Amino acid sequence: MKRVFLETYGCQMNVADSELMAGVLERAGLELVARPEDADAVILNTCAIREHAELRVLGRLGEFARLKRENPALIVGVAGCMAQHLRKKLLESKRVLDLVVGPDGYRDLPNLLLRAAGAPVAEIRLDRDETYGDLEPKRDAGVRAWVTVQRGCDKFCTYCVVPFTRGRERSIPLVDLVRQVEHAASQGFREIVFLGQTVNSWRHDSHDFSDLLRAANDVPGVRRIRFTSPHPSDMTDRVLDAMGSCEKVMPHVHLPLQSGSDRILTAMNRTYDMARFREVVEGLRSRVPGIALSTDIIVGFPGETEEDFEATSAYMRETRFDSAFLFKYSARPDTRAFKWPETVSEEEKGRRLTLLIEQQMGIGAEINDTLLGSEVEVLVENISHRDSSQLYGKSRDFKTVVFGNDGTPPGDLARVRVVGTTAVTLLGESLKTPASSPLVSIGG
Ligand code: SAH
Ligand code: SF4
Ligand code: F3S
Q1: How many domains does the chain have?
Q2: Which residue stretches of the chain have pLDDT < 50?
Q3: Could you report the per-residue pLDDT of 345-375, keeping only the tens digit for each?
Q4: Ligand 1: does its nearest atom lie under 6 Å from the Cβ of 197?
Q5: What distance, in Å, lies between the first and last C-alpha atoms of the chain?
Q6: Are 210 and 265 members of one domain?
Q7: Ligand 1 midpoint to CA 85 (Å)
């Protein structure tokens, strides 16, 4: 048992967890490989957020079942939220599986793999104390380092499976996080993204999320700081003030709204109403002028009427999010809403979704068009996959910018003029003149 193939589904927290697993595996002397065909063990780090996410993984497991028929010694493992969600059912129904490991079982992963070579293993206990705060992840190369600051979720939105798959909320101590940020910066990462299901509810001892932002802002070598996803109810004035005063905290926030109707927000147990959400948006826009906002919306929640849906659509027109992830409600076992009769047909969910997608695409394009001719600062990530004469990176407000390769190395900042837009990308022209001196990096 030497070589492991790890494949990741789901949110950024799963991506970060895979980096954590990679660190654990490598320290135990195991090697990570890029192709399942070269592996002694394959592990799928899975997501359970919507039914579709689980169906994708089940499809992929079918492919691994074929691989296992050719190589019966192959260990097939499922990790992550779906492992926790389906637990023993996975082991019983899918004969192909040797290992099922939930989000709190990664510390012992090398050992579990060894045991799984003998007989099927399930490690699905949720551990209220496990934060992995002391473990160094093996980060994928790039300019952006994901730093998990909090695990689990205590909000129990009535549609959401996460509190059941990831357990109760736990925050990682400030000292561990600052050490991780410093370490990432020393490895050359230039952007830090703090991760948590309700990242701004992070608190440890006497510190809250605003202290974490300020501490990260002081770490030399870090150029940009982002975080995802904050919960509207935890957007305190202290957090808003820190966002306004920390120059490395970027002017973009992903702020999940879910619905624009107070009635539905209550049924979802979101703990804020539209008045409060508006207050948060105003607080953000007044402290950070021009801040970009994105959101998540669910259509077709049980009980959502045409009027509720129209309230969502109207608020989105009013607030003008830069972008939005739009989802059809998917009933998830274990959640409270799972027991409620679905009142919106699949067809109607589809209609509502399409309407919002079209509306949002128009708004997003209009916002991007207002940037035409302006100058943006881009943190260069790499040469474009599609066209090697182009570089790409993100603007301060998290828009993807593609521009002619001016020799700026990944991790450096480039000044770019926006000369065109597509639905999701800004097209730019480098403002660097061949004779100009190296760019001065902000806070670098
Ligand atoms: N913790 C984050 C969201 C995590 S899940 C937050 O509270 O904002 C990402 C998004 O998936 C959610 O914001 C929600 O819009 C969507 N989602 C979660 N459960 C869902 C379900 N059962 N059906 C459809 N969409 C869902
Ligand atoms: Fe799920 Fe709500 Fe927690 Fe987000 S805050 S992870 S939507 S329960
Ligand atoms: Fe999916 Fe788990 Fe993330 S359910 S969205 S991988 S927390």
Answers
A1: 4
A2: 437, 441-444
A3: 999 999 999 999 999 999 999 999 999 999 9
A4: yes
A5: 43
A6: no
A7: 16
Give the position, in ligand 2's atom list, of the atom nearest the Cα of 153. Answer: 3
CATH number at residue 414: 2.40.50.140
- Alpha-carbon distance of 374 to 259, in angstroms, equals 33
pLDDT tens digits for 227-277?
A: 999 999 999 999 999 999 999 999 999 999 999 999 999 999 999 999 999
Both 238 and 156 in one domain: the answer is yes
Residue with tokens 């607030």: 319
Task: Of 202, 275, 277, 210, give the one whose Cα is nearest residue 244.
Answer: 210
Rounded CA-CA distance 127/215 in Å is 28
Protein residue closest via CA to atom 1 of ligand 3: 47
Dist. CA 85 → ligand 2 center (Å): 15
Q: Which of 220, 250, 280 delimits the end of a domain? A: 250
Q: Which atom of ligand 1 is nearest to the CA of 256?
A: 8
The contacts found for 187-190 with CB under 8 angstroms, 24 or more apart, are: 187/139, 187/145, 188/411, 189/139, 189/142, 189/143, 189/144, 189/145, 189/222, 189/411, 190/143, 190/144, 190/221, 190/222, 190/223, 190/224, 190/379, 190/411, 190/444
Q: Are 434 and 408 in contact (CB under 8 A)?
A: no
Domain of 118, CATH number, reads 3.40.50.12160
Q: Does residue 418 lie in a domain region?
A: yes
Q: Is the CB of 296 under 6 A from ligand 1?
A: yes
Distances (CA, A) of 425 to 253, 359, 362, 402, 419: 18, 18, 14, 7, 11
CA 258 to ligand 3 centroid distance, Å: 16
How far away, in angstroms, is 50 Cα from ligand 1 center? 8
pLDDT number for residue 94: 57
DSSP letter (8 states) at residue 305: -
434: helix, strand or coil: coil
CB-ligand 2 contact for 242 (6 Å cutoff): no
- Tell me, using a 6 A CB cutoff, whether residue 132 lines ligand 1: no
Task: Please give the model's pTM, rounded to 2 decimal places.
Answer: 0.95
Whole-number Å distance, alpha carbon 231 to ligand 2 midpoint, is 8
Backbone angles phi, psi at 215, to 5 degrees: -65, -40
The domain that holds 339 is classified in CATH as 3.30.750.200
Gap between the Cα atoms of 76 and 374, Å rounded:
51
Domain stop point among 325, 343, 369 = 369
For 93, the domain range is: 3-123
Same domain, 12 and 112: yes
